[in-house]
Fold this sequence. Notes:
The protein is 35% helix and 14% strand. By secondary structure, it is of the alpha/beta class. The protein has one domain (7-299): TIM Barrel (Alpha-Beta Barrel). Bound molecules: NADP nicotinamide-adenine-dinucleotide phosphate. NADP nicotinamide-adenine-dinucleotide phosphate binds at residues 22-24, 51, 118, 167-168, 191, 217-223, 237, 252, 254, 269-274, 277, 280-281, 307.
Amino acid sequence: LTAESHRIPLSDGNSIPLLGLGTYADPQKTPKGSCLEAVKIAIDAGYRHIDGAFVYFNEHEVGQAIREKIAEGKIKREDIFYCGKLWNTCHPPELVRPTLEKTLKILQLDYVDLYIIELPMAFKPGEALYPKDENGKFIYHETDLCATWEAMEACKDAGLAKSIGVSNFNRRQLEMIMNKPGLKYKPVSNQVECHPYFTQPKLLEFCRQHDIVIVGYSPLGTSRDESWVNVSSPPLMKDPVLNAIGKKYNKTAAQVALRFSIQRGVVVIPKSFNPQRIRENFQIFDFSLTEKEMKEIEALNKNVRYVELLM
Ligand code: NAP
């Protein structure tokens, strides 16, 4: 079984692989080239979906890995599903296309498969990606999300993004886009935190009703980096229920958590730059959880986010 045969349809006629490789790693603490190696190993292991962003500062490595694998004859461009993200400082509509073009230049690719608005709020445009005032407070920017969305639609029409979506949007923000007069394309997906401790039942149901795929980030409970993660919530990978169920199938807690999500129709994008764990996270298509086990895992929901996004 390969991830290729495990895609789910998107509302615009395209489809998305249920499993992708997350690529966020703190650039200060991660050796250069780690992302390049990880993406190449992932592609060899069967991954076809890669989740990245300009603000991860390693998109050049992702692009290089994809291009090397194409040159090797291992894959074709159309086999790969790359998701890129529009950062907060680039919400004004006139900045959207140039920002995506910059990402494409970094990747050295002609298009991304999915381009998403990373967060629903905007920062002041400019060189600083995290603009702050003299008191250390973020400088926000008034923009109209609907106008940003129209610029996203234009990127799809121009063929620079095959599909367009959003991230970290709540129901109200999704409705604002979907009820926009003259809407051309609705968001195909919403990338949000989703895992056994934060199962998002209400948002998941709303998105199901509207044909919006949920892409679950931090599906393993994050790297627990205290600089941006709420570590007062216990480590997901140590959970006794996930570990006990794993034992039954000869699987790890990580594999059980990922399987739980894909079995609910949630796309997962676990990050690993470790060859063994990259391969481990891919081995989730050869077992399935019973209805009772799914319920047991659903009951682990604590309704607490690891990623509080206090900005
Ligand atoms: P995650 O995927 O839940 O967890 C990553 C951590 O788990 C890393 O420390 C990784 O270490 C470790 N790990 C990986 N596989 C493992 C396994 N089998 N067993 C035990 N530990 C394992 O966390 P995340 O990076 O926060 O989320 C995943 C991706 O979602 C990101 O990389 C990014 O692409 C995306 N994301 C998006 C947003 C957004 O706002 N849209 C926010 C957060 C994340 P090793 O690398 O050493 O294996």
